[in-house]
Write a structure and sequence with these properties.
- The complex is a heterodimer of chains A (about 425) and B (about 425).
- Chain A is an alpha+beta fold.
- Chain A folds into two domains: about 220 residues, Metalloenzyme, LuxS/M16 peptidase-like (Cytochrome Bc1 Complex, Chain A, domain 1, 2-Layer Sandwich), CATH 3.30.830.10; about 180 residues, Metalloenzyme, LuxS/M16 peptidase-like (Cytochrome Bc1 Complex, Chain A, domain 1, 2-Layer Sandwich).
- Helices cover about 45% and strands about 20% of the residues of chain A.
- Chain A starts with 6 loop residues before the first strand and ends with a strand.
- By secondary structure, chain B is α+β, with helices and mostly antiparallel strands.
- Chain B folds into two domains: about 220 residues, Metalloenzyme, LuxS/M16 peptidase-like (Cytochrome Bc1 Complex, Chain A, domain 1), CATH 3.30.830; about 180 residues, Cytochrome Bc1 Complex, Chain A, domain 1, CATH 3.30.830.10.
- Chain B is about 45% helix and about 20% strand.
- Chain B is built from 15 helices and 14 strands.
- In chain B, the strands form three sheets. Chain B has a seven-stranded mixed β-sheet with strand order 1-2-3-9-4-8-7, with helices on both faces. A five-stranded mixed β-sheet of chain B has the order 10-14-11-13-12, with helices on both faces. Chain B has a two-stranded antiparallel sheet with strand order 5-6.
- In chain B, strand 7 and strand 8 form a beta hairpin.
- The longest helix of chain B is centred in the N-terminal third of the chain and has 19 residues.
- Classes of the chains: A alpha+beta (about 425), B alpha+beta (about 425).
Chain lengths: ~425, ~425
């Protein structure tokens, strides 16, 4: 069975991917711009993502732009940023109703593609500078976005762990940049960043929905004139040696619950021989309700409501997170370390192993039921440079052996512990 | 068995009410996964009721419905049912709201086996004194996690400002103190009162054969021999129309202050088409007053009073209902003043029919987008059904709304006596 049909074509500097699929009631369109993550660029690109979705030359205010979207049966336009290993991805995302389900059935896809092209190629700018008032407004939005992370302690603790653990690496850079740098960006400088993005980034456009790929290609080609790209040399991996001792950082705030985040190095990234084994290891260690962390930290010791792990597969890190009483810090850290040892010694059953594989495969297949995750799945090819079908992904999970999981576990080395706790008594 | 057709949406579904009273809905969809919810009409507000066995009125500890949801996952042999779902390639979960508790799974494999597992575990209570005690540590941490969340604090703060007596005031998970009073026996009292099939709804959607599924469910239920049950008697709270408090403020260690305003619903005892018309009208009004395309939104942004976290929402269920407007703000006091003034001004202006039409289109597009998600369909269909409404009538209902429907809702809902605000300020 073929799970996912993708038709792709390249026009100048743009790779277009059309996914004809009939299970959705809307069409989803995403354009993604990928560039190396740098301290120099990250805040500027974050501001750019705000400025682009805010206004265009034709609709020079958010209000006017919103009205046009509303008229297209509530088409949505949003922007997003992501950090994938050492790369920064800026996305513009649109969704629009499939006119088949509307009483007034004017074709919407063409109009939405034109609007997206307008957002990309005709920003509200002139003479080499973005509109100053728009930039000011979006600076405020971005600064609020950056500071709001402090109010979400789970994300805050995770960000602080990475700050401490990856100080010397590009990966520590914050996806939305730095508040103190926002005000230094002039409308001219922002326009330079924009030009750089348009002319140099790797650009991919995805259209997912009940569409005819040939029509999509014709319509995209007419409105997205990207010139050819200069090939960029990409340094995907930054080699870092394992730590000699564990770095422990404690921070005090007025919190009721302590947030424990532990960062491990794995030296395994996507494309490595042990990558699939690492996914299975991670699932068994801390993702699913039968995982070592859920069973031992939560169910057996009742120390936490959540205790889980996540694998940063573009960077090769594994992070454990849990919310606990401050007094239970040592107890919890010890259980987590013990459980990793259990995995390294192969103390897990075949039943647990098979259950993990079944749930990972289930998650891959369920991903195909959402237009957003379909785009994410296809975009992995752009990030890794490796094309792989869903069928092959499933097969590779099946093939993972117990020995490979033990190897993956043994490559997992604790680097940093970050603990956010209440103010000391 | 009833066949329901929604041709505009290209959907067909099957409904059957079993002899034990269970309502079963099957919606075939060509997705990879199957998503199933098994919901009881029982949530955090149902804290005073008459027990069927002892036939006496009881008041149970705050947070018990949610506690019961956690304990349902325990199996008679002491294991937890997550493991069985995992072996069968399914992810299971559950959630408790003000008036519902839902158990669910999703899977791309072994749908029928997993469906049996779902029905069986929810219909097999099996906790012990020891396991009840153990759960208190876990739920205690769940409560603490919410205590540190300023968005949650402002949301609940606003509800408590609105309601003086109604149990919606109670935190869904209860407090660390209130859950300490929960016992094995009390959990059974709640279970026997609210988990009878006649108080429950099963929704199945995915690549399934409805006839087979229905047969499977029917056989499963017939085996269990549920006896007919008297209707549940719940205590109706005595709640005044006016809000309990006009405004309040707390301080937390936050980077940005937060503020919500809202109106308490005057007579939240609607159902069916009346409820649908009222809630769509209020939602459209909020869009017309504060939507991203409005002049008000522009002014609030230019005055630095809102950011992208700004949102609004209306929700109504039997016995409670409210609107909520707000988000992060540099100046809560000023924001409250501005929002109030904007609502007053809107009331005094004639309705802009062009804007009305645009807002309606936007909402219809939003409904279609939401219909991409089986989770949304299952959870919302259930919510609509339990209020005698039909989710698949949303689009025609939007299309049939008139200017006078909106005007009626505007007068009815946005009333000064039922206005309140809540802010979280920087410490």
């Amino acid at each position: 069975m073929v799970y996912l049909v993708e038709k792709a074509k390249t026009f100048g500097g743009l790779d277009v991917h059309a996914v004809p699929i009939n299970k959705f009631k809307t069409t989803t369109i995403a354009i993604r711009f990928k560039a190396p993550l740098t301290r120099e660029n990250v805040t500027k690109r974050a501001l750019l993502s705000y400025a682009l979705k805010s206004a265009t030359a034709k609709s020079p205010s958010t209000q006017q732009l919103e009205k046009r979207l509303d008229d297209l049966y509530g088409a949505s336009l949003s922007s997003g940023l992501a950090k994938k290993g050492n790369e920064h991805v800026l996305s513009l995302l649109m969704t629009v109703a499939n006119e088949r389900f509307l009483s007034d059935s004017a074709p919407l896809l063409k109009k939405v593609l034109e609007l997206l092209a307008e957002v990309v190629f005709q920003p509200f700018a002139k003479d080499g500078a973005f509109d100053a008032a728009t930039v000011e407004k979006e600076k405020r939005s971005l600064k609020q976005r950056i500071s709001s992370i402090y109010d979400d302690k789970m994300s805050y603790a995770n960000q602080r762990l990475i700050d401490e653990m990856c100080k010397q690496e590009v990966y520590h850079l914050h996806t939305y940049g730095y508040a103190e740098e926002v005000d230094q960006i002039s409308p001219e400088l922002l326009y330079d960043t924009y030009q750089d993005m348009i002319h140099r980034d790797k650009v991919d456009l995805y259209v997912v929905g009940q569409v005819d790929p040939e029509t999509v290609f014709t319509e995209v080609k007419a409105v997205f004139p990207f010139s050819g790209r200069r090939a960029m040399t990409e340094e995907r991996r930054q080699t870092v040696s394992n730590p000699e001792s564990v770095h422990v950082v404690e921070e005090h705030q007025a919190v009721k619950q302590g947030k424990l985040n532990m960062g491990f190095r794995t030296s395994i990234v996507r494309g490595d021989p042990l990558y699939d084994a690492y996914q299975v290891f991670n699932g068994l260690f801390g993702v699913f309700p039968h995982s070592k962390l859920f069973m031992n930290v939560r169910e057996k010791a009742s120390l936490a409501y959540y205790a889980s792990s996540s694998y940063e597969s573009y960077k090769g890190l594994m992070v454990v997170m849990s919310g606990i009483e401050t007094d239970n810090y040592e107890k919890t850290v010890n259980i987590i370390k013990e459980q990793l040892k259990e995995m390294q010694s192969g103390n897990f059953s075949d039943a647990e192993l098979n259950q993990t594989k079944a749930l990972i495969k289930n998650a891959i297949l369920e991903g195909l039921d959402s237009p957003y995750s379909i785009i994410d799945i296809l975009y992995q090819e752009v990030l890794t440079g490796v094309k792989e079908s869903v069928e092959d992904k499933l097969k590779r999970i099946d093939k993972v052996t117990r020995d490979e999981i033990i190897k993956a576990a043994k490559q997992t080395v604790l680097d940093t512990i970050y603990f956010l706790r209440n103010e000391a008594a | 068995m009833e066949k329901l057709r929604f041709s505009e949406l290209d959907e067909k579904m099957i409904y059957h009410r079993l002899s034990n009273g269970l309502s079963v809905y099957v919606l075939p969809k060509n997705f990879n996964k199957t998503y199933v919810t098994f919901t009881t009409k029982y949530g955090s507000i149902d804290n005073r009721f008459r027990t069927p066995d002892k036939n006496e009125w009881v008041q149970v500890p705050d947070g018990i419905a949610h506690f019961l949801e956690h304990k349902m996952f325990e199996m008679p042999d002491g294991s937890d049912v997550f493991q069985q779902f995992g072996r069968q390639g399914a992810q299971a979960n559950a959630f408790t709201s003000f008036n519902r508790t839902a158990y669910l799974f999703s899977t791309t494999d072994q749908v029928e086996k997993n469906l049996q597992t779902l029905l069986d575990f929810v219909q097999t209570p099996a906790w012990t004194d020891k396991s009840v005690e153990k759960e208190k540590g876990i739920i205690g941490q769940e409560i603490r996690m919410y205590d540190d969340n300023p968005d949650w604090r402002v949301y609940y703060g606003l509800i408590r400002n609105m309601y003086r007596n109604h149990p919606i005031r109670i935190d869904i998970a209860g407090t660390v103190e209130s859950i300490s009073d929960i016992t094995k026996e009390l959990l059974y009292d709640c279970y026997t009162t609210f988990y009878h099939p006649s108080n429950m709804l099963l929704f199945i959607t995915g690549p399934v054969d409805p006839d087979r599924i229905l047969k499977l469910v029917e056989e499963n239920q017939n085996r269990k021999g549920f006896k007919e049950k008297k209707p549940i008697e719940r205590h109706d709270p005595d709640e005044p129309e006016k809000v309990a408090k006009k405004t309040s403020v707390i301080k937390m260690d936050v980077s940005l202050p937060k503020c919500l305003i809202g109106f308490k619903e005057k007579s939240p005892y609607r159902s069916g088409e009346k409820l649908m018309k009222h809630e769509l009208s209020v939602s459209l009004l909020l869009e017309l007053i504060f939507g991203r395309g409005t002049e008000n939104y522009r002014i609030l942004t230019d005055e630095h009073l809102i950011d992208e976290s700004f949102s609004f929402d209306y929700s109504e269920e039997w016995s409670f209902g409210f609107s909520m407007i707000g988000g992060n703000t540099a100046d809560p006091e000023r924001l409250i003043e501005r929002l109030k003034k904007m609502i007053d001004d809107f009331k005094n202006c004639p309705l802009d029919m062009e804007a009305f039409d645009r807002a309606r289109k936007k909402q219809i597009g939003g409904v279609l987008r939401a219909f991409n998600s089986l989770e949304y369909i299952a959870n919302q269909f259930t919510r609509y059904r339990l209020n005698q409404m039909d989710l698949f009538n949303l689009i025609p209902a939007f299309e049939s709304l008139t200017g006078s429907d909106l005007k009626a809702a505007l007068e009815d809902h946005f009333n000064e006596d039922r206005f309140t605000s809540f802010s979280v300020l920087k410490k």
